[in-house]
Amino acid sequence: NQNRQNYNQGSNQGRDHTSARSGSQRFPKRDAIIDLSKYENKSIHVKFTGGRQITGILKGYDQLMNLVLDNVVEQLSDPDDANIPSGKERKLGLVVVRGPLLQSIYPEDGTEIIENPFL
């Protein structure tokens, strides 16, 4: 009995039951960088790091800027230069966009493409 008691006491040594994994530590909730609520169910244009661009209807988002878009169309670029649009499009449908890949987001309404005055 004495050995069993010592064994049970020793089995818990080195374990910290108040660690962050146990959920005892609480961190303040982060708010989103920008308020996307005004763009819900509206068409937005999204640019990714790496050059890809899509347009779709914003259906949902979270505080990490992950997006859910519907009726998504990707604007394809020139294979040799990602900054030059090819004029071709590809329909993707429902898409989940990871927040860390976002470069810019803007609404489709009220925007227009202009020539670059610096070229």
TrEMBL record:
Q: Name one GO biological process term.
A: tRNA processing
One of the entry's Gene Ontology molecular-function terms is: poly(U) RNA binding
Pfam family membership, one? LSM
Which residue intervals make up region (Disordered)? 1-29
Top-rank taxon, per record: Eukaryota
The UniProt entry, under InterPro entries, shows: Lsm7 (IPR017132), Lsm7/SmG-like (IPR044641), LSM_dom_sf (IPR010920), Sm (IPR047575), Sm_dom_euk/arc (IPR001163)
Localization annotation: Nucleus
GO cellular component terms given for this protein: catalytic step 2 spliceosome; Lsm1-7-Pat1 complex; nucleolus; P-body; sno(s)RNA-containing ribonucleoprotein complex; U2-type prespliceosome; U4/U6 x U5 tri-snRNP complex; U5 snRNP
Sequence ranges assigned to domain Sm in this UniProt record? 31-111
Q: Enumerate the UniProt keywords alphabetically.
A: mRNA processing, mRNA splicing, Nucleus, Ribonucleoprotein, RNA-binding, Spliceosome
Which PROSITE patterns does the record cross-reference, listed alphabetically? Answer: SM (PS52002)
Q: Where is the composition biased (Polar residues)?
A: 1-13
Q: Which family does it belong to?
A: Belongs to the snRNP Sm proteins family.
Q: What is this protein called?
A: Sm domain-containing protein
Q: What organism is listed for this UniProt entry?
A: Nadsonia fulvescens var. elongata DSM 6958
Recite the lineage of the species: Eukaryota, Fungi, Dikarya, Ascomycota, Saccharomycotina
